[in-house]
From TrEMBL:
Residues 48-142 form the Methyltransferase domain. The lineage of its organism: Bacteria, Pseudomonadati, Myxococcota, Polyangia, Nannocystales. It comes from Enhygromyxa salina. InterPro entries: Methyltransf_25, SAM-dependent_MTases_sf. This is Mg-protoporphyrin IX methyl transferase. GO terms for molecular function: transferase activity. Keywords: Transferase. It comes from the Bacteria. SUPFAM superfamilies: S-adenosyl-L-methionine-dependent methyltransferases.
Protein backbone atom coordinates (compact mmCIF):
# COMPACT_ATOMS: atom_id res chain seq x y z
CA UNK A 1 0.00 0.00 0.00
CA UNK A 2 1.34 3.48 -0.88
CA UNK A 3 2.00 5.75 2.08
CA UNK A 4 -0.14 8.93 2.20
CA UNK A 5 1.75 12.16 1.60
CA UNK A 6 -0.50 14.30 3.82
CA UNK A 7 -0.68 16.94 1.13
CA UNK A 8 -3.62 19.13 0.10
CA UNK A 9 -5.23 16.42 -2.05
CA UNK A 10 -5.03 13.91 0.81
CA UNK A 11 -6.63 16.24 3.38
CA UNK A 12 -9.29 17.58 1.03
CA UNK A 13 -10.33 14.02 0.11
CA UNK A 14 -10.36 13.01 3.78
CA UNK A 15 -12.39 16.02 4.91
CA UNK A 16 -14.89 15.82 2.10
CA UNK A 17 -15.50 12.09 2.78
CA UNK A 18 -15.63 12.56 6.58
CA UNK A 19 -18.02 15.50 6.36
CA UNK A 20 -20.22 13.70 3.82
CA UNK A 21 -20.44 10.53 5.90
CA UNK A 22 -20.16 11.84 9.47
CA UNK A 23 -20.96 15.56 9.25
CA UNK A 24 -23.20 15.41 12.32
CA UNK A 25 -20.47 13.89 14.46
CA UNK A 26 -17.91 16.42 13.26
CA UNK A 27 -20.34 19.23 14.07
CA UNK A 28 -20.31 18.10 17.71
CA UNK A 29 -16.51 18.03 18.07
CA UNK A 30 -15.39 19.83 21.20
CA UNK A 31 -12.52 22.31 21.19
CA UNK A 32 -9.18 20.91 22.30
CA UNK A 33 -8.82 20.63 26.06
CA UNK A 34 -5.17 21.65 25.62
CA UNK A 35 -6.36 24.86 23.95
CA UNK A 36 -9.09 25.73 26.41
CA UNK A 37 -6.84 24.98 29.40
CA UNK A 38 -3.87 26.98 28.15
CA UNK A 39 -5.66 29.97 26.65
CA UNK A 40 -8.65 30.60 28.92
CA UNK A 41 -6.82 33.21 31.02
CA UNK A 42 -5.31 35.15 28.12
CA UNK A 43 -6.75 38.51 27.18
CA UNK A 44 -8.44 38.12 23.76
CA UNK A 45 -6.82 39.80 20.77
CA UNK A 46 -5.83 38.64 17.27
CA UNK A 47 -5.36 34.88 16.86
CA UNK A 48 -4.16 32.58 14.10
CA UNK A 49 -5.46 28.98 14.02
CA UNK A 50 -3.00 27.35 11.60
CA UNK A 51 -4.42 24.11 10.17
CA UNK A 52 -7.85 24.78 11.70
CA UNK A 53 -9.56 21.69 10.22
CA UNK A 54 -13.21 21.38 11.35
CA UNK A 55 -12.89 24.71 13.15
CA UNK A 56 -14.01 23.80 16.69
CA UNK A 57 -10.95 25.55 18.16
CA UNK A 58 -11.51 28.61 15.97
CA UNK A 59 -15.14 28.78 17.08
CA UNK A 60 -14.17 28.54 20.75
CA UNK A 61 -11.65 31.34 20.35
CA UNK A 62 -14.14 33.58 18.51
CA UNK A 63 -16.82 32.87 21.12
CA UNK A 64 -14.30 34.00 23.76
CA UNK A 65 -13.71 37.33 22.02
CA UNK A 66 -10.71 36.55 19.80
CA UNK A 67 -10.52 37.90 16.25
CA UNK A 68 -9.41 34.75 14.44
CA UNK A 69 -7.68 34.05 11.15
CA UNK A 70 -8.35 30.36 10.47
CA UNK A 71 -6.08 28.86 7.81
CA UNK A 72 -6.37 25.46 6.19
CA UNK A 73 -5.79 24.06 2.71
CA UNK A 74 -8.99 21.97 2.73
CA UNK A 75 -11.84 23.96 1.18
CA UNK A 76 -14.35 21.43 2.57
CA UNK A 77 -13.10 21.84 6.14
CA UNK A 78 -13.24 25.63 5.80
CA UNK A 79 -16.78 25.54 4.40
CA UNK A 80 -17.84 23.37 7.35
CA UNK A 81 -16.22 25.76 9.84
CA UNK A 82 -17.82 28.77 8.21
CA UNK A 83 -21.30 27.24 8.32
CA UNK A 84 -20.81 26.22 11.97
CA UNK A 85 -19.83 29.80 12.82
CA UNK A 86 -22.85 31.21 11.00
CA UNK A 87 -25.07 28.82 12.94
CA UNK A 88 -23.59 30.10 16.22
CA UNK A 89 -24.47 33.67 15.30
CA UNK A 90 -23.48 36.75 13.36
CA UNK A 91 -21.30 38.21 16.12
CA UNK A 92 -19.07 35.13 16.36
CA UNK A 93 -19.04 34.59 12.57
CA UNK A 94 -17.91 38.18 12.02
CA UNK A 95 -14.83 37.58 14.20
CA UNK A 96 -13.46 34.83 11.91
CA UNK A 97 -11.58 35.13 8.65
CA UNK A 98 -11.58 31.65 7.02
CA UNK A 99 -8.54 31.55 4.75
CA UNK A 100 -7.62 28.86 2.24
CA UNK A 101 -3.85 28.56 2.22
CA UNK A 102 -0.95 26.15 2.38
CA UNK A 103 1.05 26.72 5.56
CA UNK A 104 4.20 25.72 3.71
CA UNK A 105 3.95 28.93 1.69
CA UNK A 106 1.23 31.09 3.35
CA UNK A 107 2.86 33.69 5.54
CA UNK A 108 1.45 36.06 8.11
CA UNK A 109 2.97 39.48 8.60
CA UNK A 110 5.67 39.24 11.29
CA UNK A 111 4.37 39.76 14.82
CA UNK A 112 0.77 40.36 13.79
CA UNK A 113 -0.99 37.89 16.15
CA UNK A 114 -1.35 37.91 19.93
CA UNK A 115 -1.91 34.15 19.80
CA UNK A 116 -0.82 31.55 17.27
CA UNK A 117 -2.08 28.00 17.67
CA UNK A 118 -1.16 25.02 15.53
CA UNK A 119 -2.64 21.72 16.68
CA UNK A 120 -1.95 18.28 15.22
CA UNK A 121 -0.63 19.53 11.91
CA UNK A 122 1.79 17.41 9.89
CA UNK A 123 4.98 19.33 9.07
CA UNK A 124 5.72 18.81 5.39
CA UNK A 125 9.28 20.17 5.80
CA UNK A 126 11.34 20.30 8.99
CA UNK A 127 9.71 20.84 12.38
CA UNK A 128 12.29 23.51 13.08
CA UNK A 129 11.24 25.51 10.03
CA UNK A 130 7.55 25.12 10.87
CA UNK A 131 8.07 26.30 14.46
CA UNK A 132 10.05 29.35 13.33
CA UNK A 133 7.36 30.21 10.78
CA UNK A 134 4.59 30.02 13.40
CA UNK A 135 6.71 31.85 15.99
CA UNK A 136 7.48 34.74 13.65
CA UNK A 137 3.75 35.59 13.46
CA UNK A 138 3.50 36.14 17.25
CA UNK A 139 3.60 39.71 18.58
CA UNK A 140 5.87 40.64 21.51
CA UNK A 141 3.98 39.62 24.66
CA UNK A 142 1.92 37.13 22.63
CA UNK A 143 1.57 33.37 22.93
CA UNK A 144 2.50 30.41 20.76
CA UNK A 145 0.63 27.15 21.42
CA UNK A 146 1.78 24.05 19.57
CA UNK A 147 0.39 20.55 20.03
CA UNK A 148 1.56 17.39 18.32
CA UNK A 149 0.52 13.76 18.57
CA UNK A 150 3.40 11.31 18.93
CA UNK A 151 3.38 8.74 16.10
CA UNK A 152 4.28 5.93 18.52
CA UNK A 153 2.59 5.28 21.86
CA UNK A 154 5.57 5.29 24.26
CA UNK A 155 3.83 2.98 26.72
CA UNK A 156 3.11 0.19 24.21
CA UNK A 157 5.37 0.91 21.23
CA UNK A 158 2.27 0.71 19.00
CA UNK A 159 1.63 3.07 16.09
CA UNK A 160 -0.90 5.82 16.79
CA UNK A 161 -3.23 7.62 14.38
CA UNK A 162 -0.35 10.04 13.71
CA UNK A 163 1.89 7.23 12.43
CA UNK A 164 3.75 8.31 9.32
CA UNK A 165 3.29 12.01 10.08
CA UNK A 166 5.82 14.49 11.38
CA UNK A 167 4.25 16.55 14.16
CA UNK A 168 5.88 18.81 16.73
CA UNK A 169 7.55 17.23 19.75
CA UNK A 170 8.70 18.93 22.95
CA UNK A 171 12.45 18.70 22.35
CA UNK A 172 12.36 20.04 18.80
CA UNK A 173 10.09 22.97 19.64
CA UNK A 174 12.10 24.02 22.68
CA UNK A 175 15.31 23.78 20.64
CA UNK A 176 13.81 25.93 17.87
CA UNK A 177 12.77 28.80 20.17
CA UNK A 178 15.54 31.30 20.97
CA UNK A 179 15.60 31.57 24.81
CA UNK A 180 16.50 35.27 24.53
CA UNK A 181 13.17 35.91 22.79
CA UNK A 182 10.90 33.21 24.25
CA UNK A 183 9.79 32.09 27.69
CA UNK A 184 8.69 28.47 27.50
CA UNK A 185 5.79 28.27 29.95
CA UNK A 186 4.60 24.70 29.24
CA UNK A 187 6.58 21.95 27.52
CA UNK A 188 5.27 18.53 28.38
CA UNK A 189 3.83 15.30 27.13
CA UNK A 190 0.29 14.62 28.26
CA UNK A 191 -2.11 11.74 27.87
CA UNK A 192 -4.16 12.27 24.75
CA UNK A 193 -7.24 14.37 25.40
CA UNK A 194 -9.14 13.21 22.31
CA UNK A 195 -9.87 9.77 20.89
CA UNK A 196 -6.85 7.64 20.13
CA UNK A 197 -3.81 6.33 21.91
CA UNK A 198 -0.46 7.68 23.00
CA UNK A 199 0.61 11.10 24.14
CA UNK A 200 0.40 14.67 22.94
CA UNK A 201 3.28 17.14 23.09
CA UNK A 202 2.00 20.48 24.42
CA UNK A 203 4.18 23.59 24.19
CA UNK A 204 3.07 27.05 25.25
CA UNK A 205 5.56 29.88 24.97
CA UNK A 206 5.40 33.64 25.44
CA UNK A 207 7.32 36.01 23.20
CA UNK A 208 9.58 38.28 25.23
CA UNK A 209 11.13 40.36 22.46
C1 LIG B 1 -5.24 16.48 12.06
S1 LIG B 1 -6.05 17.89 11.40
C2 LIG B 1 -6.08 18.95 12.83
C3 LIG B 1 -7.15 19.97 12.75
C4 LIG B 1 -7.28 20.89 13.97
N1 LIG B 1 -6.10 21.71 14.14
C5 LIG B 1 -7.52 20.08 15.21
O1 LIG B 1 -6.71 20.12 16.13
O2 LIG B 1 -8.54 19.38 15.27
C6 LIG B 1 -4.78 18.66 10.44
C7 LIG B 1 -5.33 19.83 9.64
O3 LIG B 1 -4.25 20.56 9.10
C8 LIG B 1 -4.53 20.86 7.75
N2 LIG B 1 -3.22 20.99 7.09
C9 LIG B 1 -2.24 20.06 7.08
N3 LIG B 1 -1.17 20.53 6.42
C10 LIG B 1 -1.51 21.78 6.01
C11 LIG B 1 -0.84 22.78 5.27
N4 LIG B 1 0.40 22.58 4.80
N5 LIG B 1 -1.46 23.93 5.02
C12 LIG B 1 -2.72 24.15 5.47
N6 LIG B 1 -3.42 23.25 6.19
C13 LIG B 1 -2.82 22.08 6.46
C14 LIG B 1 -5.38 19.71 7.24
O4 LIG B 1 -6.18 20.07 6.12
C15 LIG B 1 -6.20 19.40 8.47
O5 LIG B 1 -7.40 20.14 8.47
Amino acid sequence: MTKPTYDQAFWEALWSKTLREHGDKVAHRRPSAHLTGEVVNLHPGRALDAGCGHGADTLWLAAHGWQVTAVDFSASALAHGRSMAEAVGAEVAARIDWTEGNLATWTADPGCFDLVICLYVHAAGSVDEMVRRMASAVAVGGTLLLVGHRPIDPSTGAATSAAGQVQVCVEQVVAALDPCCWEVVVAEERPRSVAGTGVDAVIRARRLS
